[in-house]
Design goal:
Number of helices of chain A: 3
Helix content of chain A: 10-25%
Shape of chain B: elongated
Order of helices and strands of chain A: EEHEHHEE
Shape of chain A: globular
Strand order of the largest sheet of chain B: 6-3-2-10-22
Strand order of the largest sheet of chain A: 2-1-5-3-4
Number of strands of chain B: 23
Largest sheet of chain B: 5 strands, parallel
Strand content of chain A: 15-25%
Mean pLDDT of chain B: 94
CATH class of the largest domain in chain B: Alpha Beta
CATH superfamily of chain A: Beta-grasp domain
Oligomer: heterodimer
Low-confidence stretches of chain A: none
Mean pLDDT of chain A: 95
CATH architecture of the largest domain in chain B: 3-Layer(bba) Sandwich
Radius of gyration of chain A: 12 Å
Number of domains of chain A: 1
Largest sheet of chain A: 5 strands, mixed
CATH topology of chain A: Ubiquitin-like (UB roll)
Radius of gyration of chain B: 25 Å
CATH topology of the largest domain in chain B: FAD/NAD(P)-binding domain
Structural class of chain B: alpha/beta
Low-confidence stretches of chain B: none
Largest interface: A-B, 20 and 24 residues
Strand content of chain B: 25-35%
Structural class of chain A: alpha+beta
Distance between the termini of chain A: 33 Å
CATH architecture of chain A: Roll
Distance between the termini of chain B: 47 Å
Chain lengths: 108, 355
C-alpha cells in the first residue's frame, strides 16, 4: 500500500496534503514538510506546542489519549474535545487521509 | 553570582545549554575565562527545562544519556575552568566599545569582554501567553505570568488560570489577601500536587474562592486596566469581574529578546561563516541551534564542533599578538595542568608519549 496521506490545515487556514510514513509521528511529518509547527520538546510530552484539532470523523480511529497527554494539554490554549498532541499519533495505513488543523500556540 | 554587578572577562556566552557549556571547555583549553547568562535559574537549557528525563541517543560515545545527565556531565567537565553563571537573567542590551562589547542584563548586571558568543538555542524561555486579543496591552498593569510581590495582589479580584503547581500554589498563597480568587482550568482534574488540589477544593467548599471549569477567551476593561475576564465554559461564556489575571501555562522559547538586541539576523537566526562561526557583527559569534549556514543541522554534536572552531578566533580577539598553539588534551602537559589532571610529581604526560 502507498504511504498514508495526511491533510493539514495551517494557522492561516491553508490546507496542505502531505505524504506520511507509517510509524512516523504526525508531528514529525508536519515538521519535515516545513509547516509552521513549534514542537519544541521534540515529542517528549513536555510542551504542548504540537497541538492540533483532529477532524471529528477521525477521532475514534485514533489511539486513546494517555493520561500524560491529557495533562500536557493543560499547557495548550483553546483546547477542544478534538484536541490532540500530534507527537502522540503515529501514522499508519489505517490513518491514510487523516485530517488535522494546527491549533493556536503551535506556531513557531 | 549576585545580579547588578560589573564584570570584565574574556568571553560572554548567552545561553547555558549544552552548546554554551561545552564552549566553556573549548575556550578554557585556550586559557580564556567565560561568563554565562541564562534566563533559566539552572544550567542546561532545553535539556534541563524541557526534557531532563528524555533519553538522547545521538551524543558521540553515549549510547544513551538523559538531558539532565548530559548537563551534569558537561558541568563536571567544565568545572576546572571556573565559569561564572548569571542565571535568571536576560541580556537586554549590547554596548559596543573599542575592541570589546558590554552586555547588560535585565537585572542590571554589566559584563565587558572582547568576545560575545550567542548560544541561545531556540531563543529565550518565556511564559506562554494565552492567545487573547490585545493581551500585551494589559501586561504592564493587570496581566501577569509570575508573582514578584504578593502585596501587589492584596484586596484585588484575581482570576488565576492553569492546572499545574504554579496556578494552584498561587491560588492558595494569594487567597488570604486577595478580595476574591477565581481559578480557571479546562477540566476538573489537575496535575498539580494532590495536597494543593485538596486544599483548593476545600477553600471552594468553604466559599472562600471559586473554581470555574473553562478557558479564558477575552478581557473586559480599557487597557492596561482589566475589569473582567470572559471564560468559555461548557455552559457558555461566563463573565468574571477581575482586577488582575494570572496565567500559568509553562514556558516556551521566543526569539523576541534576541531580536530586540538589534543585531543582523536572517530568518530569525544568526548567519555565520563556517570557519569561525562569527556573525556579521565582528566579535559576536553564534553557535548551536541559533546559528545558520549552508548545510546546518540542529544537532547538539554540531554545536560542540561549532564551539571548538569559534574558540580559535575568540583567542585571536582576546589575546592579540599571542601565538595560538593547538594542543591535545592527551599529550599536552599545559592542558592537563589547566584541567587539573596532571600528575605533578612524575612530570610525565598522562598518556601518549611521542614515538
Amino acid at each position: 500500500m502507498a504511504d498514508p496521506k495526511l491533510h493539514v490545515t495551517d494557522q492561516e487556514g491553508k490546507r496542505h496534503t502531505l505524504v506520511g510514513i507509517s510509524g512516523w509521528r504526525v508531528m514529525e511529518v508536519i515538521r519535515d514538510y516545513g509547516l509552521p509547527i513549534k514542537a519544541e520538546c521534540g515529542g517528549a510530552l513536555e510542551c504542548a506546542t504540537c497541538h492540533v484539532y483532529v477532524a471529528p470523523e477521525w477521532l475514534e480511529k485514533l489511539p486513546e489519549k494517555s493520561e500524560e497527554e491529557e495533562e500536557r494539554l493543560d499547557d495548550a490554549f483553546e483546547v477542544e474535545d478534538n484536541s490532540r498532541l500530534s507527537c502522540q499519533i503515529l501514522m499508519s495505513e489505517a490513518l491514510d487521509g487523516l485530517e488535522v488543523t494546527l491549533a493556536p500556540g503551535s506556531e513557531p | 553570582m549576585p545580579a547588578g554587578q560589573t564584570h570584565q572577562t574574556d568571553v560572554i556566552i548567552i545561553g547555558a545549554g549544552p552548546v554554551g557549556l561545552f564552549a566553556v571547555f573549548e575556550l578554557g583549553l585556550l586559557n580564556l575565562k567565560c561568563h554565562l547568562i541564562d534566563v533559566l535559574d539552572k544550567p542546561g537549557g532545553q535539556c534541563a527545562e524541557l526534557y531532563p528525563e528524555k533519553p538522547i541517543y545521538d551524543i558521540p560515545a553515549f549510547p544513551v544519556v538523559s538531558g539532565q545527565e548530559l548537563t551534569d556531565n558537561l558541568m563536571a567537565q567544565i568545572a576546572p575552568f571556573d565559569p561564572v553563571f548569571h542565571l535568571g537573567q536576560t541580556a537586554t542590551r549590547f554596548e559596543k566599545g573599542d575592541d570589546e562589547w558590554t552586555v547588560v542584563t535585565d537585572a542590571g548586571t554589566r559584563i565587558t569582554a572582547p568576545v560575545v558568543v550567542l548560544a541561545a538555542g531556540g531563543g529565550t524561555f518565556q511564559p506562554k501567553k494565552p492567545p487573547i486579543k490585545g493581551i500585551e496591552a494589559f501586561e504592564s498593569a493587570s496581566v501577569f505570568y509570575a508573582v514578584k510581590h504578593m502585596q501587589d495582589f492584596a484586596n484585588k479580584d484575581l482570576v488565576i488560570a492553569g492546572g499545574g503547581d504554579s496556578a494552584l500554589d498561587w491560588c492558595l498563597n494569594l487567597q488570604p489577601m486577595a478580595r476574591s480568587v477565581t481559578l480557571v482550568h479546562r477540566r476538573p482534574d489537575f496535575r498539580a500536587a494532590p495536597d494543593s488540589v485538596s486544599k483548593m477544593f476545600a477553600l471552594v467548599e468553604a466559599g472562600k474562592m471559586r473554581f470555574v471549569q473553562g478557558q479564558a477567551t477575552g478581557f473586559e476593561g480599557e487597557a492596561p486596566n482589566l475589569t473582567g475576564v470572559n471564560i468559555k465554559t461548557p455552559e457558555g461564556v461566563e463573565h468574571v469581574p477581575a482586577d488582575a489575571f494570572l496565567a500559568f501555562f509553562g514556558l516556551t522559547m521566543k526569539m523576541g529578546p534576541l531580536e530586540a538586541l538589534g543585531l543582523e539576523m536572517e530568518n530569525g537566526l544568526f548567519a555565520v561563516d563556517t570557519e569561525k562561526f562569527e556573525t556579521t557583527t565582528p566579535r559576536i559569534f553564534a553557535i548551536g541551534d541559533i546559528c545558520t549556514y549552508p548545510g546546518k543541522l540542529k544537532l547538539i554534536l554540531s554545536g560542540f564542533h561549532e564551539g571548538a572552531l569559534m574558540a580559535q578566533q575568540a583567542f585571536r580577539y582576546c589575546r592579540p599578538g599571542e601565538r595560538l598553539r593547538f594542543q591535545y588534551t592527551t599529550s599536552s602537559s599545559e592542558l592537563q595542568t589547566r584541567l587539573g589532571v596532571r600528575d605533578e610529581k612524575s612530570k610525565s604526560p598522562a598518556s601518549i608519549s611521542p614515538a
